[in-house]
Amino acid sequence: MKKLIPILGFVLSLNAAAEPRATGDLGVVIEREDGKAMIINTTERKQLAEIEGLGDLSHASVVFSRDQRYAYVFGRDGGLTKVDLLGDAIARRIVQAGNSIGGAISQDGRFIAVSNYTPGGVKVFSSDTLELVADIPAEYDNGKLSKVVGLADAPGQRFVFSLFDAGEIWVLDLNNPQQPAIEKFRNIGKQPYDALISPDGRYYIAGLFGEPGLALLDLWNRQDGVKRVLPEYGKTDEKLPVYKMPHLEGWAIAGDYLFVPAVGKHEVLVIDKRQWQLVKAIPTAGQPVFVMARPDARQIWVNFAFPDNGQVQVIDAKDLSVSKTLAPGKAVLHMEFTPRGEQVWLAVRDDNQIVVYDTETLAEITRLPAKTPSGIFFSARAHQIGL
Amino acid sequence: MKKLLLLILVSSTALAGEPSADRQAVLRNMLKHDCGACHGLTLKGGLGPALLPEALAGKSDDFLADTILNGRTGTAMPPWQQFINRDEALWLVNILRNPEH
């Protein structure tokens, strides 16, 4: 018996050494109705674990620590949960506000910022302990608080975000976390609903709901202020109803072209970012929600708001036209590409499935069960500005 | 004849009452997810305001059903009349007022 124990110990440690889990090809799938998230392996295309107790996950999003070990899940109910992808467990969880919309991680990975609807503002936490580092109420008009949207990380330890009710863009500089500096840009347009930052971290672009066009801040030339892009586009047309707000955070920039959802029009707009002029309005199957470029930017994938959310369209970046319409299932809510883009994973809420496509052949590879999946986030986001 | 038809229409809406069980399931799913996209899955609010009983108290059924059917111009609340009829809108208002229903 005594002899056996050391042998057993040796076998166990061998085992542990044989199967360390890497995290670079993992992902998190939000299962919104149950307040759960799946940890998945994107190479083996299988579920590794299920994490419960994440709160209200309608409109949840996720960022990753730079070591790709932790996923930070932002819930609608103000919950901020740090999930350990190696331990398959919640490492820390706080409820930091009444109602929140998204978050971002700082350039150096030390801070997590969350944008809140109530109380309107941004809070910054230590990514390690989730302790509060800075609290930035989004005050305007003598003490009113605005909902905050479109929060993105930017180079230079900055976060940039938009104030929906106030029509402002703020740049938060955290180089001295004890004394955060804020630069405010006013009158940027009515009701910015979301924003994106270009993958190089230079341009911050907010979409406007209350008026046509986009608001553009060139972070290399902040002294020039915020400029409007396409302020006249569709101004005199009747707007179609928008049953779901478009999202901009999954940037879509292909070469010199930026692809963005039109609002109240069933179109994807192609804008040349050398002159910030419209190149083309591509007609689509519905109100676009996510317009996302495959990592090589050859294809742009688009999903749609209710009632057209059973379809997904693929735009060919070479011809600037829809090359394929797919019908993955009922209520396609989100899309995520593998890091080099050979596959795309789609969350199909009402069919309780994740559907994986080969982006070259556009053939379906597999389906995985998931309960009301609403968002898919791969750990490769850890190393991308703005994601 | 025209009058009769009108009469029948009027009385049929008055009598229609609850949507069918299947339709109720569709409406509930819609409320949770599609309305929830703006009002929150638990209707505690998001881009749109909270639709909890306290928030709706003091507003008439008709007013709220009108909001659902016609939307509110100048805000993000879209019109749903293409997908929901008046009875269904009133049924939804009742669900909102009595969430554990």
Q: Which secondary-structure class do the elements of chain B indicate?
A: mainly alpha
Outline of chain A, from the CA principal axes?
globular
Report the end-to-end length of chain B measured between terminal Cα atoms: 41 Å
Note poorly predicted spans of chain A. 4-16
Considering DSSP H and I runs of 4 or more, what fraction of the residues of chain A is helical? under 10%
Second CATH tier, the architecture of chain B: Orthogonal Bundle
Low-pLDDT parts of chain B are: 1-15
State the name of the first-level CATH class of the domain at 99-244 in chain A.
Answer: Mainly Beta
What is the helical fraction of chain B, as a range of percent? 55-70%
Tally of individual helices of chain A: 1
Q: What is the N-to-C order of secondary-structure elements of chain B (H for helix, E for strand)?
A: HHHHH
Biggest β-sheet: strands ordered side by side in the sheet of chain A? 3-2-1-34
Head-to-tail CA distance between termini of chain A: 55 Å
Q: Radius of gyration of chain B from the CA trace? A: 15 Å
What does this 3D model show about the protein?
The complex is a heterodimer of chains A (387) and B (101). In chain A, 4% of the residues lie in helices and 49% in strands. Chain A has 387 residues and is mainly beta. The longest helix of chain A is centred in the first third of the chain and has 15 residues, at 4-18. Chain A is globular and about 55 Å long. Chain B has helices at residues 2-16, 21-39, 53-56, 61-70, 86-97. Chain B starts with a helix and ends with a helix. Chain B has a single domain, classed as Cytochrome Bc1 Complex, Chain D, domain 2 (Orthogonal Bundle), CATH 1.10.760. Classes of the chains: A mainly beta (387), B mainly alpha (101). At the A-B interface, loops of A face α2 of B.
Q: Topology, pairings included?
A:
The complex is a heterodimer of chains A (387) and B (101).
Chain A: H1 4-18, E1 26-31, E2 36-41, E3 46-51, E4 61-64, E5 70-74, E6 79-84, E7 89-95, E8 99-105, E9 111-118, E10 121-126, E11 132-137, E12 139-140, E13 144-145, E14 148-154, E15 158-163, E16 168-173, E17 181-185, E18 192-197, E19 203-208, E20 214-218, E21 226-229, E22 253-254, E23 257-261, E24 267-272, E25 277-283, E26 288-293, E27 299-304, E28 312-316, E29 321-326, E30 332-337, E31 343-348, E32 353-358, E33 364-369, E34 373-378
Antiparallel strand pairs in A: 1-2, 1-34, 2-3, 4-5, 5-6, 6-7, 8-9, 9-10, 10-11, 12-13, 14-15, 15-16, 16-17, 18-19, 19-20, 20-21, 22-23, 23-24, 24-25, 26-27, 27-28, 28-29, 30-31, 31-32, 32-33
Chain B: H1 2-16, H2 21-39, H3 53-56, H4 61-70, H5 86-97
Helix pairs in contact in B: 4-5
